[in-house]
């Protein structure tokens, strides 16, 4: 059962005033206008901030409807969900503010997508609400930004190509960030610091975060040992040094859940990891060590009270993020290397045309919401999906035609 198309709105952007919500809102306005083929609205807790946003967006936004709701006000969330078929939420850290909205979407059969990268929260939401989502018909899709659409859709694309060219999927896939230019926003830093703080206080959570299959359904938790880069390593395929990629902690979990939700289409023994290329020679090696040292310092200092305040002083605050120029000049280029069981190899590439975390994320999230609203058949069951397992080629078409992403095969051998 899904909602009727008779709701007032097709889609509501909850958290339109957030750093990324503003980028997303402008993107939807520029791409789809107001009151035309897409009926959409903006929502948030502060009427004055929402009205300021509308006036900053200019005259074309003057008829954009506004809905008021606080993330903890269940009656207001219920009223918001009753007006729309799809909610896009950017209100994070989701582990702090996100649950009442997920619960309300599940109860009202409203489709939902967001930008969370908080594994422990996703797992909690799946455990608590998956059964109810299946019966209400609500399709919930977390991780619809830079984490984890390029990785999840990148692996999905590679496996499609491998099946076409080799007649079988690749049992092992490695994603390498070749280049990425962008900055973190206050909201993302707050989410990362919240995970570090929670993990420091809870050994069970640390174990959960270390489990590559932590968000897979229990019957799909594979025993296959997963590669996991801890230090600097030299990659012969690309002739470059590698350092751990901070988003790999969420992306790898989403890719494994996608595999599970597609009935282990990539293989029961499928292995996957992510890393960043840091260049060749001594310079590349030193850059890898610098990244490892920087990540360790950030997470250690964020985890404990005496140093957390110091980190907070130097990182962007909620609502802050890269300038419009930095968003425009940002980009990313990800390479995927897949190998079949008998060694056939395919290399693919995914690129994005804006900074990964904001300019590109705003567009990806907007198109994930549009895909939920217009491309997914009503009889597709409710539940907690991933971008690749639910939105698949329909999302890829939107990403390439509207959101500035490319997917291509570089080489097969
Ligand atoms: N997956 C990715 O690639 C990716 C990329 C970027 C961001 N993110 C995640 O996306 C989220 C947003 O990031 P951001 O930097 O845009 O955040 P931000 O600028 O700090 O914005 C937070 C938003 O939450 C709203 N909010 C906070 N408490 C609320 C409440 N009680 N009720 C209603 N709204 C409330 C704020 O409303 P006010 O404006 O009224 O204060 C604001 O709109 C973060 O969780 C971040 O980690 C993920």
Question: Order of strands across the widest beta sheet?
Answer: 3-2-1-4-5-6-13
Given the helix and strand composition, which structural class is it? alpha/beta
Q: Distance between the terminal alpha carbons, to the nearest Å?
A: 46 Å
**Mean pLDDT across residues:** 91
Uncertain stretches of 5 or more adjacent residues: none
How would you describe the shape?
globular
Helical fraction: 40-55%
Total number of beta strands: 14
Approximately what portion of the residues adopt beta-strand conformation?
Answer: 15-25%
C-alpha-based Rg, rounded: 21 Å
Would you list the SSEs in sequence order as H and E?
EHEHEHEHHEHEHEHHEEHEHHHEEHEHE
Number of helices: 15
Major beta-sheet overview: 7 strands, parallel
Protein architecture, described:
With 413 residues, the protein is α/β, with parallel strands linked by helices. Helix content is 47%, strand content 20%. It is built from 15 helices and 14 strands. The protein has helices spanning 19-32, 47-57, 74-82, 94-97, 99-108, 119-136, 149-166, 186-201, 203-210, 248-261, 281-303, 305-314, 324-329, 356-374, 387-401, and strands at residues 9-14, 40-44, 66-68, 84-89, 111-114, 139-141, 172-181, 233-235, 240-244, 271-279, 331-339, 345-352, 383-385, 405-412. A 7-stranded parallel β-sheet has the order 3-2-1-4-5-6-13, sandwiched between helices. Strands 8-9-10-7-11-12-14 form a 7-stranded mixed β-sheet. Strand 11 and strand 12 (345-352) form a beta hairpin. The longest helix has 23 residues, at 281-303. The chain is globular. The mean pLDDT is 91. It binds NADP nicotinamide-adenine-dinucleotide phosphate (NAP). Residues 15, 17-21, 44-46, 49, 70-72, 90-94, 97, 115, 117, 145-147, 185-188, 191, 318-319, 321, 357, 361 line the site of NADP nicotinamide-adenine-dinucleotide phosphate. It comes from Marinobacter metalliresistant. Keywords: Membrane, Transmembrane, Transmembrane helix.
């Amino acid at each position: 059962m899904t909602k009727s198309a008779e709701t007032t709105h097709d889609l509501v952007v909850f958290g339109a005033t957030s750093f990324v919500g503003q980028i997303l809102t402008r993107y939807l306005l520029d791409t789809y206008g107001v009151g035309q083929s897409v009926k959409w609205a903006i929502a948030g807790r502060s009427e004055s901030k929402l009205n300021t946003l509308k006036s900053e967006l200019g005259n074309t936004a003057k008829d954009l409807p506004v809905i008021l709701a606080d993330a903890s006000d269940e009656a207001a969330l219920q009223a918001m969900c009753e007006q729309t078929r799809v909610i896009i939420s950017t209100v994070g850290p989701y582990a702090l503010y996100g649950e009442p909205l997920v619960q309300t979407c599940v109860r009202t059969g409203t489709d939902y997508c967001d930008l969370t990268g908080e594994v422990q929260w996703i797992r909690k939401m799946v455990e608590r609400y998956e059964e109810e989502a299946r019966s209400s018909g609500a399709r919930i899709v977390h991780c619809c930004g830079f984490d984890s659409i390029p990785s999840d859709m990148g692996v999905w694309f590679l496996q499609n190509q491998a099946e076409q060219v080799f007649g079988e999927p690749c049992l092992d896939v490695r994603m390498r960030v070749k280049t990425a230019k962008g900055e973190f926003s206050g909201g993302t830093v707050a989410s990362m610091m919240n995970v570090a703080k929670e993990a420091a206080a809870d050994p069970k959570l640390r174990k959960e975060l270390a489990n590559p299959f932590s968000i897979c359904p229990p019957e799909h938790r594979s025993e296959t040992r997963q590669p996991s880069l801890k230090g600097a390593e030299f990659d012969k395929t690309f002739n470059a040094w590698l350092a751990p990629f901070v988003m790999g902690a969420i992306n790898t979990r989403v890719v494994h859940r996608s595999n599970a939700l597609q009935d282990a289409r990539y293989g029961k023994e499928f292995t996957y990891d992510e890393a960043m290329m840091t260049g060749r020679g001594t310079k590349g090696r030193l850059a890898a060590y610098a990244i490892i040292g920087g990540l360790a310092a950030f997470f250690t200092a964020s985890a404990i009270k005496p140093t957390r305040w110091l980190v907070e002083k130097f990182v962007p605050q909620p609502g802050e993020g890269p300038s419009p120029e930095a968003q425009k000049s940002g980009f990313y280029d990800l390479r995927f290397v897949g190998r079949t069981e008998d060694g056939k190899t395919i290399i693919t590439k995914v690129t994005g045309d804006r900074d990964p975390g904001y300019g590109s994320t705003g567009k990806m999230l907007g198109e994930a919401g549009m895909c939920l609203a217009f491309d997914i058949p009503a009889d597709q069951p409710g539940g907690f999906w991933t971008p690749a397992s639910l939105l698949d080629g329909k999302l890829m078409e939107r990403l390439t035609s509207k959101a500035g992403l490319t997917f291509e095969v570089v080489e097969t051998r």
